[in-house]
Each structure stands twice: as structure tokens, then as C-alpha cells.
Design brief:
Helix content is 67%, strand content 0%. With 200 residues, it is mostly helical. It has one domain. Helix 4 packs parallel to helix 7 and helix 6 runs antiparallel to helix 7. The two termini are 53 Å apart.
């Protein structure tokens, strides 16, 4: 019977050096700057997509506003059944309000350096000016009102889904902005964790 020699496992020198490598101040700064740039690029792309979705939703609202039978524009996309069009009382008023909510969402996505945001900041101190953009908690309550009215009025499920589109857009934009804020906060926390390589 042969005796097999046991060879203990050893880490390679390259692996040890890689594990023990400590980033100096410049390398830390370059890494954080790279993460910032990547985050800015991704956020800019997401903001463009969100603004495009808001624009598309606004176009659908305008189409509904001009329709005489008040059949939701999304009806042919979500059902092939012939459903008699039903609508909430004063549908044009609710649609105009929805367009106003969409404008608020678009303003929420603008950077603070945008001229529109800066102009709104200047007039926020006036008690006679409606504060824009409206906060998300208020937008949720206002935008869901016609959907609840449609539901309690016994309208078709297509009509209810149509009026839920705006609060769904509010939720989508709000969730995206919270995600942006969390990503920014993560990078800021990373900056706080920077250490002095000499004392590490």
C-alpha cells in the first residue's frame, strides 16, 4: 500500500498581495469618483425614461379628453371584449387634473439647478401661490380619487384600471426617486468611510 504525501494548501503570493493591498487616498478618491460618474450616467438615463413615460401617459390623457364616448385609450390593449363605455361624473375635469398631476411628476424629476425649479423656489414663499411641485403624499390622495369614484359607481373594470393609471405613475416616479436618493446616500456613506492609508 502506497502512502500518499499530504501537501498543505498554500495561498499564492499574488492572492496574498491582492488581499493585503490597501487603497491609498488617491485610489480611494478615484474609485469614489468613478462610482459617482457611473451613478450619474445611470440616473440620467432613468430620468429620460421616466420623463418619456410621463409624456406618453399625458398624451393618452389628452386623447381621452378629446374623445366623445370616453372609452379609455388603453381598452383595446387590455381586452378584446366589447365593453360599453362607462365613465365617472365630470370625466373631463378629472382628466385635466390628471394632466396637472403629470406636470407635477415631471417637475419632481427636474434637477434643482433647472430654471423651472429655481423659479418655483423663488415663489414658494408667497402665500397666494400653490406650492409646486405638490408632495407625493398629496398626489397619491388626489390621483386615486377618480379611480375610487369609478369603482364605487359600478363602472367597468377597464374604466377603473384607466383611472388607476395616474396613481400608478405617481408610485412609479416616487419609488424611482427614492431609489436615486438611496444610491446617492450610499456613495456619501462610502465617502465617510475613507481612511488614511498611512494609518490603516
Amino acid at each position: 500500500m502506497s502512502v500518499r504525501q499530504r501537501i498543505p494548501f498554500k495561498f499564492s503570493e499574488d492572492t496574498q498581495e491582492e488581499d493585503q493591498h490597501i487603497l491609498d487616498e488617491q485610489e480611494q478618491e478615484e474609485l469614489i469618483q468613478k462610482l459617482k460618474e457611473e451613478s450619474d450616467v445611470h440616473n440620467a438615463q432613468y430620468l429620460m425614461v421616466l420623463q418619456a413615460l410621463i409624456g406618453l401617459s399625458s398624451i393618452l390623457q389628452c386623447i381621452y379628453l378629446m374623445k366623445a364616448d370616453k372609452e379609455p385609450p388603453i381598452a383595446p390593449l387590455i381586452t378584446s371584449e366589447l365593453i360599453p363605455p362607462t365613465s365617472v361624473p365630470l370625466p373631463n375635469l378629472w382628466t385635466i387634473l390628471n394632466l396637472f398631476y403629470h406636470a407635477n411628476l415631471s417637475i419632481h424629476l427636474l434637477p434643482l439647478s433647472n430654471p423651472i425649479r429655481q423659479s418655483l423656489q423663488k415663489i414658494r414663499s408667497s402665500p397666494y401661490i400653490l406650492l409646486l411641485p405638490i408632495g407625493y403624499s398629496i398626489l397619491y390622495g388626489l390621483s386615486v380619487a377618480p379611480a375610487l369614484l369609478s369603482l364605487f359607481s359600478g363602472n367597468s373594470w377597464v374604466d377603473v384600471v384607466w383611472w388607476l393609471a395616474t396613481p400608478a405613475m405617481v408610485y412609479f416616479v416616487h419609488s424611482s426617486q427614492r431609489w436615486f436618493a438611496q444610491e446617492t446616500e450610499g456613495i456619501q456613506n462610502l465617502e465617510k468611510l475613507r481612511y488614511d492609508a498611512k494609518g490603516a
